[in-house]
Design goal:
It is a single chain. By secondary structure, the chain is α/β, with parallel strands linked by helices. The protein has 2 domains: about 190 residues, Rossmann fold; about 290 residues, Rossmann fold (3-Layer(aba) Sandwich). Helix content is about 35%, strand content about 20%. Strands 5, 6, 7, 8, 9, 10, 11, 12, 13, 14, 15 and 16 form a 12-stranded mixed β-sheet that branches. Strands 1-2-3-4 form a 4-stranded parallel β-sheet, with helices on both faces. α4 crosses α5 and α12 crosses α13. The chain is globular, with a radius of gyration of 24 Å. The two termini are about 25 Å apart. About 5% of the residues have low confidence.
């Protein structure tokens, strides 16, 4: 069969489908790289012609550009209809033909109208295996049109495409049960964690914070305030995910829903918070890292308007979505945790840079971490950049170890300052990645306040400097467009692939290469 999907937001779902079908002895063609890189190649048309079944993955936004006659997904669907393939749409959570824009699209574009009339399979995340079993038994037994074998001259190219898809599968680490287990494919592949008898998942998160500490009897969410501390407090949290947890979500009580109290069966909660001495912390991190296959740690530095508990939960959510096996560490600087505290947060994050530097130094010298990844968001990027710029070997010879993946998500820092810092950043890390967006309202407001563009903005033009991989997200998100970096359908799949393989953008799925003044950057979500 031919598996069709939208690169931005759909490739992770497509790879899960491909893995399941291959495990059940179906021959699947999926192209993880070539789409968007040039003219529609004949090899794609010929592979549609060479397979009786055409399965199209429909995730939210998948058909947003289908009015364009040159849109690749539209062209694949059109060719499949012309060839009288057995067309099966897979409707993933959040996709519907019933929205007004979809109804007009169905009227205006014949191929989409035909697609909307096909019987398909609804795929809920919680019942993925059941949906795939229905696809196999009820939809892939139908005949297709006349089959045309792959031309001899294209067979080597097809083999390369399928080999790339196999490597993408391996990078995702997806394991799909042949028995059709009740758990989702994500759960089947998730890193080692504790499970409770009531279906909750418990994930460990280490923390380091230079916030003021209240007495130990306080609720974990309120243990640390927005005030500063000269001492860096260390510890370990245990975060509980409800049985109904969905990727990219942080389920919390909501006043709009008249929910005022945490419920572990419905919400992501900090189940336990334990303070540790430096020696205890080093031993605990080292033990956790030793259990991972790559001896790695991911340090997350949050942005403005984040309280301690939120920082821990966000770190856990990112680790969960990335299926990260190593130590997930939240470095929580003293954000005031209010929307009106931006100016004060700017001062506090600059003040924390020295503590970030010292912590990174300790992580490499005392905790046995071989692969350190650093992910920062918003103004958290400033602490990381300041720490790396000031870093010099200490009197005892210790230094910050070389970082494997240094990632800046929607960084709120002056674009010119980021360009000036880039040589030091690229010297400190094997790969530096900058995620930017044209739809980030929060950064637009920061630009108006400061009078200069932010590094996380892609308009009027993205920041492109030697040694930094700039990835521009074209997908809109919630939270003023500022949370796209941790939403499952956009940046998370690319970040997953980046941490797993360390591959450059040209070797990662879903990225379309562009150029600015002779230097490359990449667009995600086209």
């Amino acid at each position: 069969m031919f598996l069709s999907y939208r690169r931005g937001g759909g490739w992770q779902s497509a790879l899960l489908v491909e893995k399941y079908l291959q495990a059940h002895d179906f021959d699947v063609f999926i192209d993880t790289l070539s789409l968007g890189s040039g003219a529609f190649p004949s090899v794609i048309e010929h592979q549609i012609e060479a397979r009786p079944h055409f399965v199209v993955v429909l995730t939210p936004g998948a058909l947003a550009r289908a009015r364009d006659e040159s849109d690749w997904l539209r062209r694949e669907i059109t060719h499949a209809i012309e060839c009288k393939r057995n067309i099966v749409p897979l409707f993933f959570d959040g996709f519907s033909f019933d929205h007004e824009d979809m109804r007009s699209l169905r009227r205006d574009v014949a191929a989409i109208g035909t697609l909307s009339e096909q019987n398909g399979v609804t795929v809920h995340n919680d019942y993925f295996d059941a949906a795939m079993a229905k696809l196999c038994t009820q939809f892939l037994r139908r005949p297709g049109g006349v089959i045309t074998p792959t031309p001899v001259e294209e067979r080597a190219q097809v083999a390369r495409i399928l080999d790339q898809a196999k490597r993408a599968d391996e990078a995702m680490g997806v394991r799909v049960s042949l028995e059709g287990a009740a758990q989702s494919p994500h759960d089947a592949a998730v890193f080692a964690s504790e499970a409770t008898t009531d279906g909750r998942l418990l994930l460990p998160v280490f923390y380091a914070t230079d916030r003021h500490r209240r007495p130990l009897g306080w609720n974990p969410d309120l243990r640390f305030t927005g005030a500063r501390s000269e001492h860096v407090w260390l510890g370990r949290a245990r975060v509980s995910f409800p049985p109904t947890h969905r990727l990219s979500a942080i389920e919390r009580p909501s006043m709009l829903r008249l929910l005022f109290k945490e419920d572990a069966s419905k919400h992501v909660v900090i189940d336990e918070l334990s303070e540790l001495s430096l020696d205890e912390y080093a031993t605990s991190v080292a033990a956790h890292v030793a259990k991972s296959r790559r001896s790695e740690a991911l340090i997350y530095l949050h942005g403005y308007n984040i309280r301690f508990g939120d920082a821990v939960r966000r770190t856990a959510q990112i680790a969960y979505d990335l299926k990260f096996e190593g130590a997930a560490i939240a470095f929580s600087w003293p954000s005031l945790g209010t929307t009106t505290g931006y100016t004060r947060d700017e001062v506090s994050v600059a003040w924390s840079a020295a503590h970030v530097e010292a912590f990174l130094r300790q992580l490499g010298t005392r905790m046995g971490v071989e692969r350190i990844h650093v992910l920062s968001h918003n103004i958290g990027a400033r602490a990381v950049i300041d720490a790396l710029q000031r870093a010099e070997p200490a009197a005892d010879g210790s230094a910050i170890p070389r970082i494997r993946q240094l990632v800046f998500a929607a960084p709120d820092i002056d674009a010119a300052l980021f360009r000036h810092a880039a040589p030091r950043l690229t010297a400190a890390a094997e790969r530096v990645t900058l995620y930017a967006s044209a739809h980030d309202t929060a950064l637009s407001a920061a630009r108006l306040l400061h009078g200069y563009p932010r590094a996380g903005e892609s308009e009027p033009q993205p920041v492109v400097v030697p040694g930094v991989d700039t990835i521009v997200s074209s997908v809109r998100s919630t939270s003023l467009g500022h949370s796209y970096y941790r939403e499952s359908g956009t940046i998370i799949p690319d970040l997953y692939y980046l941490l797993r393989t360390g591959a450059p953008p040209d070797e990662r799925a879903g990225l379309v290469r562009q150029e600015k003044e002779g230097m490359a950057y990449w667009v995600l979500g086209l």
